[in-house]
Amino acid sequence: MPNTTEIDLNFTGEQRAVETLRLSDARYRRLFETAQDGILILDADTGQVVDANPFMKDLLGYSQEEFLGRKLWEIGPFKGEDASKSAFAELQRNDRLHYEGLPLETKDGRRVEVEFISNAYLVDATRLIHCNIRDITERMRVNQALEAANKEMAFQIEEKGKRADELAMINAELARSNAELEQFAYVATHDLQEPLRAVASCVQLLQKRYEGQLDARADEFITHAVDGTKRMQTLINDLLAYSRISTHAQVFASTNCELVLREALANLMVAIAESGAQVTHDTLPTVNGDATQLTQLLQNLIGNALKFRGDRPPKIHVGAVRKHGEWRFSVADNGIGMEPQYFERVFLVFQRLHTRKEYQGTGIGLAICKKVVERHGGRIWAESEPGLGATFCFTIPERK
Fold it and tell me: What is the pTM of this model?
């Protein structure tokens, strides 16, 4: 027979176990009641809801009472017997299921997408299914927006790639066409020289032999013919010079611009002496370029300053400043200048701002300058005011 002490100890142990169980159940219930996700507890055999936490009403609009004792597929948001029974059958076969983006309809008709996680477990030999339901509508919306944005970005990248390919093809075709046109211009102008020389010689002989022997009208016609052939010869020579920028280009090499300027000034020696011009310059750099074309570039710009001088003796300064990985050259003068609206036009082929009586030339010199600068990877522009001279600036990338 157990003594009184043993009975008291056993009783106290049972009491502690009961109290522990009660506290555990209370903690579980508190967590269950305050959870910020919807929770349903199902009977795994019947599909009936044996418990639902209060948050289900916040989530779907149905109270605990509307859930309790009813089968899952009979409840508002889960209605649809075939689909719900099928899902429940899957719940019975698997201890854990996870659905992402499960669509549900709330009591007031709104559509929400939820994350549905179920776990099966035993309680006193009864198999239950714990269903955790979380509203992920906003997350899904953001994910869909991101997915749509990514698709749009991918589409734009693909379209840009296609356009880049198309532009590359167009540029290649333009380069080929330009090369063919330049070659044609060179051949055409070169082949025109010989017949033009023959015509010019004949007209000059007529002028020399018969000038004063015919009537005044005939002398006028001959004079016009001689002037026309001279202008045509000048035009053809300039066109040849323009086409040779591409057809007779030299490979870029280290080029001392001091020597380039010296050569250009030597070619302009007579014009400088006749005009009484004063030409000064900064210390000029060494660049990577075509020495012949750079000589032609400076010669054309300085020659332009000599031609479009005012009443004063020309003062011309050639400058060079290194800035932002390139050399900026300038040719400044004290000549007649020009209006800003002509800054772009002067670089076009055959564009003249003055009549031939005022200033000789074909209007191709600055177009040649532009083509030379662009071949060297730079840009060219004009700065001027009428009566205050002009400055032509161009850049050449710094030698690596």
Answer: 0.48
